[in-house]
Amino acid sequence: MKHYFKKISLLDYKNIVPKSVIGLFIILILLIPVFTQSVVIVSTLTLTGIWAVAAMGFTLVMRTGQWSLGQSAFMALGGYTSAILTVQMGLPFWPSFFISGLVSGLIALLIGMVVLRVGGVYFAIITLAMGEIVRIIALEWEPVTRGSRGIITSAPPPIVLWGHELVNFDTSLAPYFYFMICLVAVTAVVFWRIGESRLGRTFYGTALNPIMAEHQGIYLMKYRVIAFTVAGIFTGYAGALYTHFLQVITPFVFGFWQSIQITIWSIIGGIGSLIGGPILGTALLYNVGVYLGRTDIPGLQAFLFGSIVVIVIMFLPQGAGLVDLWKLFWTKIVWREKEYKTDEPED
């Protein structure tokens, strides 16, 4: 019995240490605006988190076995909804922000109820076309979207409590950074709960073997629509925050290349993880893309992203990505121990 407790404590230690390292890393990220006032660093990290939310939405849709190439369209829907409500209609920011995600999710629901009947490659093509349709509508519907001129938005209003101004988005980028952290945290918690629930297991089952799932009485379209709608809601919120952070939205902000980037970030990060994979993939590749965007070599970013995707697909198991290397690092490199042995007899 004593030997049994020793093995349990060793197992707990090996689980606690990696999680502690991740926790420490998260704390350091939260303190970045305290240590630096660099506009480049804070704004890049803020945009990284916003795109990570969209990547998590894509991964949730992928969990049901569907390949969406129109995630940037839902960012555009959320962004335009918030911009139109605040600028064109004069509504306050916070109600407009919450409505933006709901509108994006509602449109995802309506589209999903139609296009998810086909599934597979046809669904990917339809979502790709949907992204172009949203862009064309934003470009041509000038009385509402102002066409190619776009809509100039403003910063969210200051947060005041009991007559004291707590947060002012006009004076610093730090409020946007922590706004992004809150959005990422809420999205991660919701997606984690979905992944750990019976609903999440059903998602995975529909992707793993849809024919068997149907024979067991699972209505595939129902669960695909649920995943598509939830992803649309949070992707819409990401688009709304993106729009007010840049304080402008045009039809050219969210397009085909942005949807492809979301796909690449999720695959490289690891689509087997609803949270860690999309966040890690986005954090790495978005920042690499920002750096490569400053070079004068044309097509370098697309070439590098494509090469990394090929390497990940060739050398890692299906569905695995960079997030899975974290576990391998601890098990194969750090904990290079022989199996626990003892001379004590087992009870």
Describe the SSE topology.
Elements: H1 2-30, H2 32-35, H3 39-63, H4 71-88, H5 93-115, H6 120-140, H7 142-145, E1 151-152, E2 159-161, E3 164-167, H8 174-196, H9 198-208, H10 210-215, H11 220-246, E4 248-249, H12 256-269, H13 276-292, H14 300-315, H15 322-334
How would you describe this protein?
The chain is mainly alpha-helical. It has a domain at 39-253. The protein contains 15 helices and four strands. It has helices at 2-30, 32-35, 39-63, 71-88, 93-115, 120-140, 142-145, 174-196, 198-208, 210-215, 220-246, 256-269, 276-292, 300-315, 322-334; strands at residues 151-152, 159-161, 164-167, 248-249. The protein has a two-stranded antiparallel sheet with strand order 1-4. A two-stranded antiparallel sheet has the order 2-3. The radius of gyration is 22 Å and the shape is globular. The N and C termini lie close together (6 Å). The model is unreliable at 1-8 and 338-347 (pLDDT under 50).
Notable characteristics:
4 strands; two-stranded antiparallel ribbon; globular; two-stranded antiparallel sheet; disordered C terminus; 347 residues; mainly alpha; disordered N terminus; 15 helices
